[in-house]
Design goal:
The chain is of the alpha/beta class. Helix content is 46%, strand content 18%. β13, α13 and β14 form a beta-alpha-beta unit. The longest helix is centred in the first third of the chain and has 21 residues.
Length: 394
């Protein structure tokens, strides 16, 4: 099969990884895949084509508008490029991710019209991996009522035009049913784990390599959106008060206000801030840590999405402490690969961390279980085989 995958993110950010790993393993199944995404180079004005592990990647002109509203013309331009790409080559499948974005949503409207009048034959698929409309990401990021309304309209109308849709969560499956998508046209497709990235080096050697303290308890948090920062840092403060020999690594974009709060809580010596890192540089930090932290906010977006870093945490083979919300709760509870804390309760999150710090046997066993789940149930290879059987070959 020839498959076109449409993604609204920059190469190397966000849902790009979901698109890329699915594309990579689809290629290994003998398919030819073209992945359209944004060029992270803000100065790029022309489409650039590169090859990554068998996947043909088309890098479109990236973000140029200084606001969501000013970005709209560039969304439309990218949508037109994606339409041209879809109709100029013979694709068997067009698979669009996050249709709340005009870049990937508008092409589906045009392609469905062409199918209706008999001028296009490709199967149209949609992937729904977050809640973007009112109460979701556009509300959380304060994009304004117009962007909220646009995202809500696109993500609740365009799925009705697809031949099939894939969702990452029970909540999004329920949303799809509510807007009128037929149950037999919906497939659950979680995010996977990149089990090919595996460091056999033991923790102590990694700590030396990374310049981390040998004898300290090390917690690690990875994330770009910091809606849970207060919840997390207050939990860490409680942990440090009871276990002073503990440090927390933040692989995250902390700003001045975050650093100031860390200082005010007296945690400057207990927080190691290394900033945002390239994907391939994150796993050594995870494996060098004792416990991995996955706090979740109690909002629509966090209940709807499936954080890709959960797969990275599982691959690291370390125990996870997470908030009992959404798909994270489901995966950890079903597979017993971590401890779950109550939402909006930093003290309970801290208690779960302390429970693991005080029980090396529990840490080791949950960590081992985490990697088994990644390798046996949630590898990207396994998830792609599920996509092939449940969606593409039907």
């Amino acid at each position: 099969m020839r498959i076109l995958v449409l993604n609204h993110n920059d190469q190397g950010k966000g849902t790009f990884f979901r698109c890329f790993f699915l594309s990579k393993y689809l290629c290994q199944h003998g398919n030819e895949v073209v992945l359209s995404c944004l060029n992270p180079d803000r100065n790029a004005v022309f489409t650039k084509v590169i090859q990554i592990e068998g996947v043909k990647v088309c890098l479109l002109a990236g973000q140029h508008g200084s606001s969501s509203l000013l970005e709209l013309p560039f969304h439309i331009l990218r949508a037109l490029i994606n339409i041209r790409l879809a109709v100029s080559q013979r694709f068997d499948v067009v698979y669009s991710f996050n249709v709340a974005s005009p870049t990937t949503g508008l092409p589906l409207i045009f392609l469905r019209f062409l199918k209706m009048i008999g001028l296009y034959n490709a199967k149209l698929l949609i992937d729904w991996d977050d809640w973007w409309g009112k109460g979701g990401l556009t509300s959380i990021d304060k994009k304004g009522w117009l962007i909220e309304a646009s995202a809500s309209f696109l993500e609740t109308r365009i799925p009705l035009l697809a031949d099939r849709i894939t969702v990452v969560s029970d909540m999004l499956e329920e949303k799809a049913l509510q807007i009128g998508v037929k149950p037999h046209n919906i497939s659950y497709l979680p995010n996977g784990a990149n089990t090919e990235l595996w460091y056999s080096v033991e923790s102590r050697s990694l700590r030396k390599e990374l310049g981390l303290p040998f004898e300290m308890n090390i917690l690690c948090y990875v994330g770009r959106a910091l809606t849970t920062f207060d919840y997390l840092i207050n939990s860490i403060s409680i942990v440090v008060s009871k276990s002073p020999n503990t440090v927390a690594i933040f692989i995250a974009p902390l700003d001045v206000s975050h650093i100031e709060k860390i200082k005010n809580l007296g945690l400057s010596e207990n927080v190691i801030h290394i900033g945002v890192q390239l994907y391939e540089k994150i796993l050594p930090y995870l494996k060098a840590s004792d416990i991995l932290l996955l706090p979740r906010a109690n909002n629509k977006s966090e209940k709807a999405n499936y954080p890709a870093r959960l797969g990275d945490y599982l691959v690291a083979g370390r125990p996870i402490v997470a908030t009992a919300i959404g798909e994270v709760e489901k995966v950890i509870r079903e597979n017993k690969c971590g401890l779950l804390a109550k939402p909006d309760d930093p003290a309970d999150f801290a208690d779960k961390i302390l429970e693991l710090l005080n029980d090396p046997w529990l840490r080791e066993n949950i960590g081992r279980r985490s990697y088994e789940v990644a390798e046996q149930k949630l590898s990207w290879r396994t998830i792609t085989e599920q996509l092939m059987q449940d969606v593409l070959l039907k």
